[in-house]
Design a protein that fits this description.
The complex is a heterotrimer of chains A (about 800), B (about 240) and C (about 375). Chain A is of the alpha+beta class and about 800 residues long. In chain A, about 60% of the residues lie in helices and about 15% in strands. Chain A has four domains: about 1-45 and about 230-375, no CATH class; about 50-230, no CATH class; about 380-490 and about 670-810, no CATH class; about 495-660, no CATH class. Chain A is built from 28 helices and 21 strands. The longest helix of chain A has about 45 residues, at about 280-325. A six-stranded mixed beta sheet of chain B has the order 6-7-8-3-9-10, with helices on both faces. In chain B, strands 2-1-4-5 form a four-stranded antiparallel beta sheet. Chain B is about 30% helix and about 25% strand. Chain B is built from seven helices and ten strands. The chains are: A alpha+beta (about 800), B alpha/beta (about 240), C mainly beta (about 375).
């Protein structure tokens, strides 16, 4: 009987049920999607060695990244040597997708890998037809490339081809990898003489430590992945925060839709109570309904999220590869636990948000058959108290705890506090607006909103939050972008930069470049990773290039100390991560033992989240006796152009492919990378905005239904359907405008919190505190107004065409 | 401001000038059928009825006899399947929806059983509402005067939920009269009130209609209410019976 | 209404199904390699053994490129000072890749090497085994006249004979091996026919008795051991020919100084092919080739492994012409390889059926029984 009641109701209101489903599905989708994405960025980054040998695999490398095959051959035959897996890795692209060729020896200590059809790895890799080398590829990678078993993939730059001879599943670490026989890979890449790394089983650690010698580095696969994880920590924090906000918005939708469902049936509930239905049974009825809707909605959300996260992962792939040098998997890897957990959590959350609605329903006195009913609005005093409490505790957390989680959590609390107050402020604005325009249709329309305040408050808050997020994030991203642009411009003082493709420049080559006609001065840079993992960058700079360093804080002696080799500089992220300040001593491992040098200054840098130490070239060469450099900056004489000099450099025959680029080119490329990095943030912000619009639609529909008698009265008193339509449209536009008005200050708050708190804590760098950029406001405001108004059209249309007579009487 | 409802030609608008000898309302062969599933229910069956200017007519009848339907047709909120409904010489059923709505707003006052006041507006604003809808706002003085007449001048600033049923209905009557309609249609105006309030409201309604020379069509169950009218007709199963 | 519920449930089922397939990540089991199949046929590009050719030592101890397969096969029985017995097997297999163009790479290889190393701990009935692979590149594996190796599993030529060194998890072996008899050329001067077609043959020589002396380490416990070993060397392409399902191969060293090698090539019908053969080596090293009709096998005991495959591990053997009749029984049953190739290779005793006296020891190899379980055995 209870079921029949619910069912009949669902049938009569398919649109509302659909909205509820969408609301839940959207919330679940974003949360699950981000969880999957986080997983992909945690579990499967640089997991090739773990997949080939095992979780705890050991990795042997040469600091240069190239391990001589003779070294391998020597090591491998030593008594007690582990069954090394030689691996040759190289980044390639196919069909525009970033991939990596992973050449392995299938006859070494590699774990059993089998194709989906049971083909063994060696069988697959030695199956050659038509002279095209074979590759084993994961199923999700193939999906990404839109090809299948036995298809031939063409590599974008070289035009080389590989044939897919087996498809593997369930090894996300091998996503975006073309697993090939190492001999074929070496030949195809034209990389004879070396391998990238050797993998070994964990049991061989003692042997390796005893036998590797000083030249080779030993890393554990888990350590390697931990550092890959560390790399993406900032990005993941960003994603998590977004997903929580999306969830909150999704819950708003659920709340407003469910409360709407309740409104519809107030009379029925009153009647049922009068007929003797107990509270318990009524509660059971409502919970049952919510569970059915939530179950279906959450299921749809899980499906949507999986599709969504795979798409987002594609968006992320490029920046993760460019910024972190890691290839994420081609598809996310959901587990049954994740799905089941989120599904159950969604059911619980849906029931939880229904509690206030349910209380409302249970309070309906038996026999009360009227529909009119006021949703309780918290008194202003309580709202303010709650806001103050949340905001102060958030601020206190941020102030007292220097971790990233505190910044995120604090921001969350502050936002929550502000959101609590938004309906109060928003409806205050509505009242003010209505008073200003009292005699016009918009004025009246806004006045009429007042009664629906309880119903509309959550939607208003959700919309305001979503808009604030979109605008605030936009401000932060644009501000950050400008800061990076300025930084690059300032950093690049030379007129052009020259390097050799995948090689360093020897002293003699540098001298030849420097002595070219038209070159006035030159600088050079050498970057190395020290044994303790610190990145060291050695600069040879002419005096005028010094201003390229933007020093944080006063350090008048820095230049003298630095160039004399008496002190080093550290980049801001490194300083933050290790708590270093001017005057502190850093200890750097050098071939002659640890060198202890003071820090002359801390400089702004956005190139590396891990940060690095800058030393003068002379000091570096004294320590390491390495005279090569990675790139040379050339300062041109008047009348010389980079293009002209570029031609001369090409004529130099430096013994390698010389590349040159102007500062403008570098700036362009840096900003392109930057833009790709933040695509995900944009995508998520948009999703949150969409969810908020669903919330607004459902709230307006609920409000429209609740006010149906009022609307019918207005119609009877002489308001034409067109004007009624106009009235509701004005209401939704007005609500959007009010949401925008409350969102703007919130957006500025979010902007500063992201720029000045989250960025330094997540990435280690700070952004110059300036006025927030206005562009996001200019983009978001019109778009939001248009969308908000459009959102109101459907409810307006529904309300306008409702037959008026039926709704004139109470309780119908 | 003319107090005489007979003077329907007071307006500058020529369209609104009508022959004063014409009845305010004239129904001819008005038939209304509802479809319920496969069944046709004839709610009104060839009803002929005329209401002259200033006349007060009571329509009584059992529940479901078609009283309210007649009222809705008279207000132009619904259209007959057959027959014509003339208001002030205008064939309401030939007007397009916007004109019909405008016509209603200009010439008809509506009083509902459940008052139907807009909850977010004060009593005064509810009275103002029609003028705002028609684009001809009533002056503050007019509202005051009318409110005083109905005994609600102290209550204008209150919200509907702060008023008793009888007070709410008096506000609704003010709302129905403020724009000087030619015809007031009242659907069970006392149906939700206790006897004392009902008496009071009926008296006020009757007096103010009389004072303006407005015609009144009152749909009611109440014999006492019907007794206040000049003429009574009875609807039985969609057909009109004279009493 | 019922229809709508059915539709809703169907949609939910489809959604759940989609999610489940998205989670599904089980890797399928690999298809194993059939050792028999590998020896049955070979592409035409490989050389064939088609008739007797003189063998020259030590040159012919080295590998013979151009043939499809080749092996170096040691087996033996060892005893420590307390009389505790160990069996061992050490085999290098070389499988040549089809001749053709090779990639320009340090890892380009003409062959894949496989090594099997097993130590049977008779006292505890424990079979320790390890398999290794390597490509024929960068010196990872190879066989010259002086050294046969796969990474650090090595057999080096010494003045006396060879030194064998190999270790795996839980076991290692370091043995000096000194031949006590000259090389035996199997078949017709080393030309061992195994099928009717031209090329269904291998080059096959053995050293049927070598003194073994060295060390066994089992679970960290080292033991000085001595004993007797056997070396088989064989190479060829497509030696088995069609219709052969497997073989039962005996390498027995009798206490009276004679050594006996017998093999039965089993047809798919389960009979002994007419190319089944053997050799009887006298104590002085003189030997006589045996043909199928010279000996009889009778299965007298089976052992079922954990995959459910039955192995005929005990036999009654008769050589009427020699007046020999004895039983061959395993030192213990579970001496089975669960590796790329599934076979049984274990230490056995030669027993007098009348009084149960031990007449000698040796090794038994059973092949072709487990090809059906290749599905269940992981292969790279």
């Amino acid at each position: 009987m209870l079921a029949r009641l619910s069912r009949a109701f669902f049938y009569r209101h398919p649109a509302q049920v659909l909205l509820a489903l969408i609301g839940i599905a959207a919330g679940v989708a974003v949360v699950t999607g981000v969880a999957l994405l986080r997983g992909a960025l945690v579990e499967s980054l640089d997991a090739v060695s773990a997949e080939l040998v095992g979780e705890q695999a050991l990795v042997v490398r040469h600091p240069s990244g190239r391990l001589d095959v003779d070294t391998y051959a020597r090591l491998v035959r030593q008594p007690g040597a582990p069954d090394f897996v030689p691996v040759l890795r190289a980044a390639v692209r196919s069909d525009g997708q970033r991939l990596e060729v992973v050449g392995v020896d299938p006859f070494s200590g590699i774990r059993t890998l089998t194709g989906a059809d049971g083909t063994g790895l060696s069988t697959a890799l030695f199956n050659e037809s038509g002279g095209i080398p074979s590759a084993v590829v994961s199923a999700s990678t193939l999906e990404l490339l839109d090809s299948g078993l036995d298809s031939v993939l063409t590599l974008d730059e070289s035009g080389r081809q590989v044939r897919v001879t087996a498809v593997i599943r369930g090894r996300p670490g091998l996503d975006r990898r073309l697993l090939m026989d190492i001999s074929r890979a070496q030949a195809m890449l034209d990389e004879r003489g070396w391998v990238s790394e050797l993998l070994a089983p964990p049991e061989s650690e003692a042997w390796l430590r005893a036998n590797l010698g000083d030249e080779l580095l030993l890393v554990t696969a888990s350590g390697q992945r931990a550092s890959a994880r560390q790399l993406t920590a900032g990005m993941r924090a960003n994603l998590t925060a977004m997903s929580l906000l999306a969830l909150a918005t999704g819950l708003f939708v659920v709340y407003s839709v469910l409360s709407f469902l309740m409104v519809q049936r107030r009379r029925t509930f009153g009647l049922l109570r009068a007929l003797g239905m107990t509270h318990g049974r009524l509660a059971r009825l409502l919970i049952g309904e919510v569970l059915v809707i939530a179950a279906f909605g959450a299921l749809a959300g899980l499906v949507a999220s999986t599709v969504l996260s795979d798409q987002l992962l594609r968006l992320i792939a490029a920046p993760v590869a460019e910024v972190y040098g890691q290839l994420p998997p081609a598809a996310t890897n959901p587990t049954p636990w994740l799905y089941a957990g989120i599904w159950l959590a969604a059911l619980a959350a849906a029931v939880a948000v229904t509690v206030p609605v349910m209380r409302e329903a249970l309070q309906i006195p038996p026999g009360r058959l009227v529909r009119s009913f006021v949703v309780h609005v918290l008194p202003a005093r309580k709202v303010l108290a709650l806001t103050v409490l949340l905001v102060t505790s958030g601020a206190a957390w941020v102030a007292l705890d220097a971790r990233l989680v505190a910044a995120l959590g604090g921001l969350f609390l502050v936002l929550a506090g502000v959101i609590v107050a938004i309906p109060m402020i928003g409806f205050g604005l509505v009242r003010g607006l209505a008073r200003r325009t009292a005699t016009t249709l918009p004025g009246r329309a806004l006045r009429l909103l007042e009664t629906a305040r309880g119903r509309l408050s959550p939607a208003l808050a959700a919309l305001s939050l979503a808009l604030a997020l979109a605008i605030g994030m936009g401000m932060m991203i644009l501000g950050f972008r400008a800061a990076v642009g300025d930084w690059v411009t300032r950093l690049l003082q030379a007129d052009m930069y020259v390097s050799l493709e995948s090689r360093s420049l020897a002293r003699e080559q540098v001298d030849r470049l420097a002595s070219l006609e038209g070159v006035e001065a030159f600088s050079s840079v050498r970057r190395t990773r020290l044994a303790d993992g610190t990145t060291l960058t050695a600069y040879d700079l002419p005096a005028r290039a010094w201003s390229g360093f933007e020093l944080l804080g006063e350090a008048p002696e820095a230049y003298r100390q630095f160039s004399a080799g008496d002190a080093v500089l550290v980049s801001e992220p490194l300083a933050r991560r290790q708590g270093l300040a001017i005057g502190d001593i850093v200890e750097l491992p050098t071939p002659e033992g640890p060198a202890r040098v003071p820090i002359a200054a801390v400089f702004r840098d956005y190139s590396s989240e891990q940060g690095f130490v800058a030393v003068s070239g002379d000091l570096y060469r004294r320590w390491f006796d390495d005279h090569a450099v990675d790139s040379v900056g050339l300062y041109l004489a008047d009348g010389m152009t980079p293009a002209e000099l570029g031609r001369r450099i090409e004529g130099l025959a430096l013994g390698g492919v010389a590349q040159w680029i102007t500062p403008a080119g570098i700036r362009r490329e840096s900003l392109a990378v930057f833009d790709r990095t933040f695509r995900v943030s944009w995508a998520l912000a948009m999703l949150v905005g969409l969810i908020a619009l669903v919330a607004l639609t459902s709230a307006l529909l609920a409000q429209g239904l609740e006010r149906s008698r009022e609307h019918a009265t207005l119609r009877a008193l002489g308001l034409s359907p067109a004007r009624l339509f106009g009235l509701v449209t004005v209401q939704s536009a007005g609500l959007t405008a009010v949401a925008l008005a409350t969102a703007l200050p919130l957006a500025v708050l979010i902007h500063y919190a992201l720029s000045l708190l989250i960025q330094p804590r997540a990435f280690g760098w700070s952004l110059p505190a300036g006025l927030p950029p206005a562009e996001p406001v200019l983009w978001v405001v019109p778009v939001a107004l248009v969308l908000g108004t459009l959102t109101g059209l459907y409810p307006a249309w529904r309300i306008g065409r409702r037959p008026m007579i039926e709704h004139l009487r109470a309780g119908r | 401001m003319a107090d005489d409802c007979d003077d329907v030609c007071h307006d500058d608008n020529r369209d609104d000038c009508r022959d004063e000898r014409q009845p305010v309302l004239r129904a001819r062969g008005v038939t209304r059928t509802y479809h319920d599933g496969n069944q046709d229910i004839r709610v009104l069956d060839s009803v002929d009825l005329e209401v002259s200017a200033g006349e007060k007519l009571a329509i009584t009848g059992e529940s479901g006899s078609g009283k309210s339907t007649f009222l809705h047709l008279a207000a132009g909120m619904d259209l007959p399947d057959a027959g014509t409904m003339e208001l002030l010489g205008e064939h309401v059923n030939r007007l397009a929806e916007p004109e019909r709505t405008r016509f209603r707003a200009r010439h008809i006052g509506l009083v509902f059983q459940d008052y139907n006041l807009i909850e977010s507006l004060s009593a005064g604003e509810n009275i103002e509402l029609v003028g705002w809808l028609t684009g001809r706002p009533a002056s503050v003085d007019d509202i005051r005067r009318l409110a005083a007449e109905l005994g609600i001048d102290e209550l204008l600033g209150r919200r509907p939920d702060q008023l008793s049923g009888g007070q709410q209905q008096r506000v609704a009557i003010a709302r129905a009269l403020i724009h000087q309609p030619s015809l007031v249609l009242a659907d069970e105006p006392t149906g939700s009130l206790d006897q004392a309030s009902a008496e009071q409201v009926m008296q006020v309604l009757s007096q103010s209609v009389d004072a303006r020379g407005c015609a009144l069509v009152l749909v009611t169950h109440s014999e006492t209410a019907a007794a206040r009218c000049d003429r009574r007709v009875r609807l039985r199963a969609g057909k009109l019976e004279a009493t | 209404m019922r229809r709508d519920i059915v539709i809703a449930v169907l949609i939910a089922v489809v959604a759940v199904g989609w999610l489940v397939q998205r989670i599904e990540q089980r890797e399928p089991d690999a298809t194993g390699i059939s050792g028999t199949a590998l020896l049955n046929a070979a592409p035409d590009a490989f050389k064939r053994v088609t008739g007797p050719e003189p063998l020259v030592f030590p040159a012919d101890h080295a590998m013979h490129p151009g043939f499809r397969n080749e092996w170096w096969y040691f087996t033996g029985n060892l005893f420590d000072a307390t009389g505790r017995r160990y069996g061992f097997q050490f085999t290098l297999f070389r499988f040549a890749v089809e001749p053709g163009e090779r990639p320009d790479s340090d890892f380009a290889s003409d062959a894949i090497w496989m090594a099997h190393f097993a130590v049977s701990d008779v006292a505890r009935a424990r079979f320790n085994s390890a398999e290794r692979f390597a490509r024929d590149a960068l010196g990872l594996a190879g066989a010259t006249a002086d050294e046969w190796w796969l990474r650090d599993w090595t057999v080096t030529r010494t003045e006396e004979g060879w030194r064998l060194r190999a270790q795996m998890d839980g076991a290692s072996l370091d043995l000096d091996l000194a031949p006590r008899k000259p090389v035996v050329l199997q078949g017709d001067s080393g030309y061992s026919r195994k099928g009717p077609e031209r090329g269904n043959a291998s080059r096959y020589y053995s050293i049927t008795r070598m003194a073994a002396d060295g060390r066994v380490v089992l679970d960290g416990n080292a033991a000085e051991v001595t004993g007797s070993a056997w070396l088989d060397r064989e190479w060829g392409s497509s030696q088995l020919g069609e219709g052969i399902a497997g073989w039962d191969w005996f390498a027995l060293q009798l206490d009276d100084g004679r050594d006996l090698m017998l093999y039965r090539l089993r047809t798919e019908a389960g009979d002994a092919s007419r190319f089944s053969a053997g050799v009887l080596v006298e104590a002085d090293g003189g030997y006589r080739v045996l043909e199928r009709d010279d000996f009889e096998f009778e299965e007298i005991g089976r052992w079922r492994d954990r995959l459910g495959v039955d192995w005929p591990v005990a036999w009654r053997v008769r050589l009427p012409g020699e007046g020999l009749a004895f039983e061959v029984r395993p030192a213990f049953d579970a001496q089975r390889w669960y590796a790329t190739v599934g076979y049984w290779e274990g230490a056995v005793d030669v027993i007098d059926p009348d009084d149960g006296r031990t007449l000698g020891r040796g090794y038994l190899e059973l092949s072709g029984y487990a090809d059906s379980d290749a599905q269940r055995v992981g292969v790279r």
